[in-house]
Design goal:
This protein is an all-alpha fold. It has one domain. The protein is built from 5 helices and no strands. Helix 2 runs antiparallel to helix 3. The longest helix has 31 residues.
Length: 146
């Protein structure tokens, strides 16, 4: 919970390219005019270290919690009568899988379109380039960032 709180309340930093101020975000960096380079944050990759480390600790905590819960499931499953053995395990893993699917669906359909400026029509926020009428070329953005 501490890592999640730190991630939630830490500033994320400026994006690599501000789509609301320039139309050159989908252009390779070598072809961007010098006057437009002020809208590019070349130090953006350096902002990710804290979030990567905190995400690693969160993943480690998740693995510990899942391992402990699996051990409890095995204990309870062995105490079930043989005639109905496995029903608790089935119920627990069904609930875990369905809630996991729900989390993936929220991420895929409610949060993804704005962050990647994809063509998905359902999102909690609209893409900045759609508000200004400019398109997006995600493959070019990835090649510039790497």
């Amino acid at each position: 919970m501490i890592c999640l709180s730190v991630m939630a309340f830490s500033p994320f930093g400026e994006p690599f390219c501000n789509r609301e101020k320039t139309k050159y975000c989908s252009t390779s960096l070598e072809k961007v005019p010098k006057s437009e380079l002020q809208y590019f944050n070349l130090a953006a990759p350096d902002n990710g270290t804290l979030f990567i480390l905190l995400s690693m600790f969160i993943a480690f905590g998740y693995v510990l919690a899942v391992s402990a819960s699996d051990a409890m499931v095995v204990e309870y499953a062995q105490r079930e009568p043989e005639a109905i053995r496995g029903r608790i395990q089935t119920a627990i893993y069904t609930v875990r899988t369905l809630t996991g699917i729900l989390a993936y669906l929220v991420t895929a359909f409610a949060l993804n379109a704005w962050a990647t400026c994809s063509t998905a029509s359902a999102s909690l926020r609209s893409c900045p380039s759609r508000r200004t009428g400019r398109g997006s070329n995600l493959s070019t953005i990835h090649s510039v960032a790497s």
